Structure formats: C-alpha cells, structure tokens
Amino acid sequence: MVVESPSARERRLARELRDLRAAGPMHGKEVAARLGWSASKVSRIENGRIGISADDLDRLLELYAVSEVQAGFLRRLAPSARPKGWWDAYAETLSAGYANLIRLEAGSRALRCYGALVPHALLQSPDFVRQVILSTWETPSQVEIDRRMQVCRRRQDVLDADSPDGPLRFHAVLDESVLRRTATAPGRDGGTTVLRGQLAWLEDAAERPNVTLQVLPFAAGLPPVTAGSFSVLESRATGTPDVVYLENKTRVFYLDSEAEVQRYEQAFDLLSRMALDPAESLELIRRTTEQL
Question: Of 7, 14, 84, 206, most Cβ neighbours within 10 A?
C-alpha cells in the first residue's frame, strides 16, 4: 500500500500497548476508568487511529508496570519521539513528504538503497545536486536553487551524525549507468566536469567506515527491479527494516507494509549479490574517471 506518511512505527506502538493491556489482563473500559479517559480513546490509541502524547504514554506504561528497558523502547516508537532538528526551519518551504523523509533518515539506524539513474541524494556532490535541481525544476530562481542545495547538504550530515548509536549505516548499490551518465541539465553547462567531480565524491564517500558502496555492472544483466531507485530504512527503535521510500520529481512515496518492505529487502539482497564487491566497485569508479 502506498501511503503519504509512514506509520509502521506508530502501528507497532499501538500493537505493543494492546498486548500489554491484554497481558494484564485488563479490559479497555477498566483502563479508561483508571486514567479518566473514554473507552473510545483507549480503542483509538490501540488501533493506531490517533497518536499518543508523551504524558499519556507514560501514564499507560506506569499502569501496565512496564520495565524501564521496554518503556524506553516504546517511547522511541511514539510520534512525540520523532526527532526534531534543523529541517524544522524549512517547514514552510518543504513538502510534507520530503520533510518526513529527512526526519525518518535522521531517526534511522541504517539505509540501503539502489540507484538506477543517479546517486542517492546522500552521495551527491554539490555540483551534481545543482544539476539535478536544474533538470527537475522548471526555471528555479537562484534563491530556490541555493535553498535546495543547502537542504541536501544538511541532509547528508546523517552520515557524520554524532549520536550514541553512531552515524547512519549506509549501503548503496549503483547501476553502472550512474557512473557514465553526463551530469548536464538541459540547456546548462556541466557535463564531464561535474561527472568527474561526482565520481571523486563517491570515492571519498566509500572510504567512510559506515558507508558500503557497490556498483552493478552492465555485465550482470537485468536487475531484479525495473521500477527504478528505492531506499529501505531500518528503525533505530525496532532494529528492523520498516519503511521503503521512492522519490520522484514532486513526491515521496512510502511503503510500510511488512510484505512490501520484505520484497524490497529481498530485491536489495539480490542486487548486492549481483553487484561488484566494494573493492572492485571502487576500482571501476576509478577506471571510469580515467576514461573521462
């Protein structure tokens, strides 16, 4: 199912709270009476129809006598625990889908992606980002170009994020065509110079301990996905893949059913096996640069 905003983590919280109540065992009406809520509020929380505030969650956790370890896990799943950060300053200029994407990346432990046409945004050099903006937006103003470039640069900070869990673990498989496509927006300069700089940027990125970069060579044959690029996010809270996203010119699409996420996980695993290993991939990038 395609959804406008990811809800897998919220649904997990709702299910966990429902299971805790049933293990009591307690009826929804009893919970409502003891907390001064309506029975319908308890039901809507457990069905994931409404979010839950931090205060209400704490009251439930106390009522269910939840251990501190489990309570910490559940708090990380709560909508109120969604990370807030630099992107809030761009709230009026970012679409809801793109803002959700940035927030999700910041709250994820790992990202696995397949790049069919261009490198993932976290791997794009500043000059390449500019060409992407010019090729996908009609007559953007210089202010708009600068703002979008700044957002992309800030988005890339997750690869260097200073957090208790460390930076985002990033694993990308790039189609060989990504290494060879001239980076020129229609009617603009760029071309080989931008592409050469992008390949050097990929080399630098591949040296990061939290980045794994592979190239799917033409010789490997058809990839197991024909719909293009995709990314799979792994939650810090659950430690499991729970959201797939696909970006196009104007929207970000999220897939969050377990079956869909699993299919994309399997596709990525196959792509990784078909691709060159990291050392061979880096060598191909260097040879391609020399040929430019």
Answer: 14
